[in-house]
Amino acid sequence: MERRNFILQSSLALGALSLPYQKLLAGLLPARQDPWKMRMLRNDVGIFYERGGTIAYLLSPKGLVVVDSEFPDQANHLIGELKKQPAGSFELLINTHHHGDHTGGNIAFKGLVKHVAAHSNSLANQQRVAAAQKTEEKQLYPDITYGESWEYAIGNEKIKTAYFGPAHTNGDSIIHFQHANVAHMGDLVFNRRYAFVDRTAGASVSNWIVVLENALKKYDKDTLFVYGHAFDPEKVTGNKDDLRAMKDYLSRMLDFVNGWVKAGKSKEDLLKEKAIPGVTEWQGDGIERGLQATYEEVTSK
Predict the structure, then answer these.
(1) Which of 43, 134, 138, 297 is at a distance of 20 to 30 A from 128, taking alpha carbons?
(2) In what order do the strands lie in the sheet containing 174-177?
């Protein structure tokens, strides 16, 4: 091994610039790996993920549609890759909700995309948070807002949004590419990862359960779902089983906290708990965030 290293170092010193040696060196060194991953799912719909909430995109000769934007650096990586594709200009950016890891990259689309769309509550939350953090100049706000549903047709694809009330926030919507039958759930699903419940933005654990039940009824067995986050980064897509598992996790957390409060136990002791009875698949950091938010919801009634 030492002899091999000596030969390699000597060769670098004597002839590193020769074309044959460059080809040899290319074979010895690992290929450059980009920090992001992207892949096609169905038809012309694909996903991109690097840091933040998973992005979905539609490649169409009539234009590009992007769902969520992560952060500015990541959005620029995505934009660079999509510009290489044989598709039209950037027609639409949709935000599933307002959190910075889903809308922070919007600003990278300024002057590039024709329209930005989101639920009306998502826009209000984004504006409120930006004003509080004094980051208004770093925002690209939606110029199209919707309520319970909204439709947008482009090429042979029809996009339809669905809003079932407060859940992770009070502005989460599902973005469904109907022809491809791919539904972006945003942060309505943290796949096998403890969820963030944003009470400051009108979240509701009890109604989150209802939202997932409505989604299970609305979409069919062949729908491919995209999730905002997953404990295993490779598992940001899945099927109805994941939605049922998420619903079960939230239901068990709500039952656990309801029982805790009825027993007269304190919030401080609740936040020391390291597991939720019956929940075996959810992992990672943040169990206390869900417990605290649920405790606040239960005790506020």
Answers:
(1) 297
(2) 149-154, 157-162, 174-177, 182-184, 224-226, 237-238
- Opening angle at CA 119, ends 53 and 232, nearest 5: 20
Q: Is 63 left (phi over 0), alpha (psi -120 to 50) or beta?
A: left
Cβ atoms < 10 Å from Cβ of 17: 8
Distance from the Cα of residue 151 to its chain's centroid: 21
Q: Strand 90-94 and strand 115-119: pairing?
A: parallel
Question: Which residue is listed with tokens 């450059």?
Answer: 32
Q: Please, are residues 40 and 85 in contact by the beta-carbon 8 Å criterion?
A: no
Could you give the 3-state DSSP secondary structure of residue 28? helix
Q: Can you list the domains of the chain with their CATH numbers?
A: 36-238 (3.60.15.10)
Euclidean distance between CA atoms 202 and 193, whole angstroms: 21
Instruction: Write down the pTM of the prediction.
Output: 0.88
**Encoded tokens for 236:** 């940001």
The predicted-structure confidence for 112-166, as pLDDT tens digits, reads as follows: 999 999 999 999 999 999 999 999 999 999 999 999 999 999 999 999 999 999 9
Beta bridge partners of 162: 149, 174
Cα 193 to its chain centre, rounded Å, is 13
* Structural contact between residues 142 and 95, judged by C-beta atoms closer than 8 angstroms: yes
